[in-house]
């Protein structure tokens, strides 16, 4: 076999600020072949913040994609496994609390966003989930709004039959600077100006 007289990967630690003992940990790889400069791909600050693509993360995890070009460039990907209609990937938000029990001991559900293939036909819908208040230990995630693969939006329904379908309540349209508003779907709202 041949020899490789240059580095291709390394882990290094150091002091972030001279005159202090505040350290960092950097993960570097070879950016191009044949001995070009090492490039930092992941960085952990003394505060415990982790940066991917940046050495100055301002949160527990910050991911930076330096690709420009006037378009939104993919930075994070969440992938599920398809076995049938309804499969997809969920991003869940929780709070830590010792008395929480759902979804796990020590935490409780807040909300979530799920990408789902709900037709089994190479398409995807986006589900926005919330957790109803009042369940000790934490309630289950519940669908609040959906954007279907057809582009239809449902609020209070997961099967919208029009570009916007709202179920289970009225739609309130407030006029800026006025106490009156337009309402659709009910007559019990206070201070109603007009119904359409």
Could you explain how this protein is built, in words?
The chain has 196 residues and is mainly β. Helix content is 0%, strand content 39%. The strands form three sheets. Strands 6-7-8-9-10-11 form a six-stranded mixed sheet, with no helix packed on it. A five-stranded mixed sheet has the order 1-2-3-4-5, with no helix packed on it. Strands 12-13-14 form a three-stranded mixed sheet, with no helix packed on it. β12 (171-174) and β13 form a beta hairpin. The model has no long low-confidence stretch (mean pLDDT 88).
User: What portion of the residues fall into strands of 2 or more residues?
Assistant: 35-45%
Could you give a short account of the major beta sheet?
A: 6 strands, mixed
Mean of the pLDDT scores? 88
Low-confidence stretches: none
User: In order across it, which strands form the biggest sheet?
Assistant: 6-7-8-9-10-11
Q: Terminal Cα separation, in Å?
A: 80 Å
Give helix and strand order, one letter per element, not per position. EEEEEEEEEEEEEE
- Overall shape: elongated
Number of strands: 14
| Count of DSSP H/I helices | 0
Structural class by SSE content: mainly beta
Rg, nearest Å: 25 Å
> Portion of residues in helices?
under 10%
